[in-house]
Amino acid sequence: MRLVILGGGESGVGTAILGKKLGYDVFLSDFGKIKNNYKEILLINKIEWEEEKHTPELLFNADIVMKSPGIPDKSPIVVQLKEKGISVLSEIELASRFTKAVTIGITGSNGKTTTTLLTHHLLKSGGLNVGIAGNIGKSFAWQVAEDKYDSYVLELSSFQLDGIIDYRPHIAVVTNLSPDHLDRYNYEYQNYIDAKFRITMNQTEEDYLIYDADDEAINKWLEKNTVKAQLIPFSLTKKLEKGAYLENNTIITNINNEKFVMPTDNLALEGKHNVKNAMAATTVAQLMRIRKATIRESLSDFQGVEHRLEKVLKIQNVQYINDSKATNVNATFYALDSMNTPTVWIVGGVDKGNDYTELMALVREKVKAIVCLGVDNHKIIDAFANVVDVVVEVAAMDEAVKVAQKLAEKGDTVLLSPACASFDLFESYEDRGRQFKLAVQNL
């Protein structure tokens, strides 16, 4: 069996290790450069690879191809492979065929990393032997190869879900939907929504779909499509007979006739969106039979996510917050919504077709100055120049932070929440967030 892998990143290398363990003839091909740490792993495991090219004769003799999620379906090599009738799968699909572990799949436009980490924290604290993978940490295929866990919490992007065929999570979560990555979906929001809902396509009556019942796009999709899984909604606005809802600043969940109550004041994470993330994670924990006392304790001691509304430092009574993970408008909406003080907002990067109008009311109410950090800022300036008195353009993170410090007064907040991808000036949103933290520490 010849397994060809396209892409030499985390999911590609993890799949190569799984393929090797299964006794396949494995070959990995990356059109770009492979990072040195991954090359070392490939060499140690005696896996053949190439970089900066795709050699057709080494790829077209594959029985099966695993395509990394970053490679679009339209890329010429993928199109050619499919034309030759070669099966092209995602890492999640391939790895799921070789594990008996129960999986909890979490997708959505925002909140999925926090919900995934929080869910994993609840299940692990409850004594389950549970791994965490997908869009986060060590790849799912790699962990399946090591075969250590009885269950997994998987953060799943639409790109990962595009490549599934039979993958079936026992519990699926859709946190929310807003336009994102539309460049990969022919700029059709509906295509992106359909991709997200692939998470439930193989579920049966024994499985569960947990979703945000306040989300218009989710509700519309559920009205038009049949889902076999048992539906469990959560809501901040409606009282639900089954599911999770909010009443008098208290989260109430009713799952399998088991009631759970937790005041929102006791949550470790702040902000309305985190109440929703906590509802989703709690629902999963109850379905997985975690004790209520453990759930309560774990919700109150959770550490949060790096680069997501992460408090960095308070300098001269100005709070600096790193929300570099906000790579779309909707994520920045949550960030601005949770600001309680006048805010100097650092924004910008690679625009993925953003519509800034939905931020207008929040910017008017909360933002005193904007620092644009990007190669091309015209859209941001056009959108907000008439709303905010001070708009400054910069081209480097340390400059952005120094300018923000000058603009901020005692009691203000400086918020990095870019609403854009990072690739114009940084390697990744993590790199952007770390540079921000370093610049703040150097003030």
Automatic annotation (TrEMBL):
Cell division among keywords: yes
InterPro entries attached to this UniProt entry: Mur-like_cat_sf, Mur_ligase_C, Mur_ligase_C_dom_sf, Mur_ligase_cen, MurD
Domain Mur ligase C-terminal residues, every copy: 307-420
Alphabetic keyword roster: ATP-binding, Cell cycle, Cell division, Cell shape, Cell wall biogenesis/degradation, Cytoplasm, Ligase, Nucleotide-binding, Peptidoglycan synthesis
SUPFAM superfamilies listed in its UniProt record: MurCD N-terminal domain, MurD-like peptide ligases, catalytic domain, MurD-like peptide ligases, peptide-binding domain
Gene3D superfamilies, A to Z: Mur ligase, C-terminal domain, Mur-like, catalytic domain, NAD(P)-binding Rossmann-like Domain
Sequence ranges assigned to domain Mur ligase central in this UniProt record: 106-285
GO term, biological process aspect, one: peptidoglycan biosynthetic process
A cellular component annotation (GO) from this entry: cytoplasm
GO molecular function: ATP binding; UDP-N-acetylmuramoylalanine-D-glutamate ligase activity
Recorded metabolic or biological pathway in which this protein acts: Cell wall biogenesis; peptidoglycan biosynthesis
Domain of life: Bacteria
Regions crossing the membrane: none
Entry's EC annotation: 6.3.2.9
Pfam families on file: Mur_ligase_C, Mur_ligase_M, MurD_N
Swiss-Prot/TrEMBL catalytic activity: UDP-N-acetyl-alpha-D-muramoyl-L-alanine + D-glutamate + ATP = UDP-N-acetyl-alpha-D-muramoyl-L-alanyl-D-glutamate + ADP + phosphate + H(+)
Compartment(s) of residence: Cytoplasm
Binding site for ATP: G108, S109, N110, G111, K112, T113, T114
Function statement: Cell wall formation. Catalyzes the addition of glutamate to the nucleotide precursor UDP-N-acetylmuramoyl-L-alanine (UMA).
Family statement drawn from the similarity comment of this UniProt entry: Belongs to the MurCDEF family.
Protein name: UDP-N-acetylmuramoylalanine--D-glutamate ligase
Organism: Flavobacterium kingsejongi
Lineage, uppermost ranks: Bacteria, Pseudomonadati, Bacteroidota, Flavobacteriia, Flavobacteriales
